[in-house]
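Journal club prep, notes for RB
We'll compare a predicted complex against what the paper describes. Inputs for the fe (ii) ion case:
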Amino acid sequence: MIVRDVRLEGAATDLRVADGVFTEIGPDLVATPGEEIVEGHGRLVLPPFIESHIHLDSVLTAGDPEPNRSGTLFEGIERWAQRKEKLTVADVKERVNRVVRQQASFGVQFVRTHVDVTDPSLTALRALLELRDELSDVMTIQIVAFPQEGICSFPGGKDLMREAVGLGVDALGAIPHFEFTREYAVDSLNFVAELAAESGLLIDVHCDEIDDEASRGLETLATRAYELGLGGRVTASHTTAMHSYNNAYFTRLLRLLTMSGINFVSNPVVNTHLQGRTDTYPKRRGVTRVKELTEAGINVSFGQDDICDPWNPLGTGNLRDVVFTGLYVTQMLGHDQIADSHRFVTTNAARTLNLGEAYGIEVGRPANFVVLDAGSWYDALNWNAVVVGSYRAGRLITRTEPVRREVLF
Ligand code: 17E
Ligand code: FE2
C-alpha cells in the first residue's frame, strides 16, 4: 500500500507499507502493479496518539451511586470506594470496551491505565488483564497496579501489590500523599522501587497529588530511581504539589530530577478541576511545572486521567482537548511551543511508556499512524481536526468523515 501525498514533519511525502510495517518513506513513490493507493490530499500524518495516564476501571461511573459534589480528589476516592463494591468483571469490560473504541476513533492506539488494586478481589484488574489481550490488535494497553487507598495504610496493601505482579501487570504505582504518615509514604515508595527492581516492571506513581507544599514523595521516588538505575523506567504522575513548592526547594529538586532521568505525566484538565479546592482566593491551578521541567530537558507527557467518573464528570478521551487546555494552563502558547505540542501525546508519551522501536514513523517499524484533516498540527489543534483515518499495522481501524461547514450568507 502507498499512502500518497501526506505531510510528515513539515514536508510532503508518501509512505509505503507492506506486511504491517513501513518499508519506504519519501516523495513520489511509484506504485507496483496492483499496489493499493490511498490519497492523503496533503493531510498531516502523525504517529498514533498515546494516552499516558487514564483510569479505565472507573470510566462512565459518574453519579453512580452518588456524584462528587465537592469536586475534590478525596471525595472522588470516597465515591469510587462506593462504586467499587458493585464491580463485576462484566461491568468493567462493558464500560472499558465502549471507551476504548471512542479513544480509538480519536487516533489513540496506546494507553497506560491505572487500575485500583485496593480491592481484595482484584475484580477490575482481572477485567483489564483480559481486555489487554483481547484488544491487543487495535490498542496496546499497559496496566499499572494502582493502590488507590494506599499500600501501607490499606489492610493487606503490600500483598495485593504482590498479587497484582503475579497476575501480570506492566507497572507498579503508589500514592504517597494519601498514606497516613510521611513514614508510610517513604516506606511505600521504597517497597515499590524494590519490587520493580526485582520483577523488572515499570513504575508510575500518583505522586504528591495535593496542594500541600510539604508533600515531598517525589524526592524519595527520584532518589530511588537514581540509586537503583531505574531512570526512564519510572514516571511521576500528577506532582501537583510542585505547583506550590517554594522556588528555592524546586531549584534544588530540579538537579535531582535531571540526574534521575524519570518521566513526568501532567493531567492538566482534571487537576485544574480537582486542585485548589481548599483555597479561597487566590485559587491555585495545581498543575505541575510543565514549562520548567520541559525547559530543563525532562520528559513530560499529558494525560486525560478520567472520563465521566467520580473525578471528572466530563471528558471524551480526545487528547487534542488535553493538549489545548494544557498549553493554556501552563502558559506554553509561544509559536514554537504550539507547533510541536503534539509531542505531549505522541513522542514524549512514547518515552514515558518505554515503547522504544514499537513506535514512530520510520522504515522497519510497525505501520501505526493517524491522518488528520489538517495540513499542520497548529491547524489541527486549533480547529479540532478529526482523525480521518487511524491505521494499525497498515490496517484502517477507524474512519471519520471530515467536518464540512456551510455558511449560508
Ligand atoms: N485517583 C487519584 O488518586 N487521583 C486521580 N486523579 C484519579 C483517581 C482520577
Ligand atoms: Fe490519575
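Talking point for the session: The first helix runs from residue 73 to 84.
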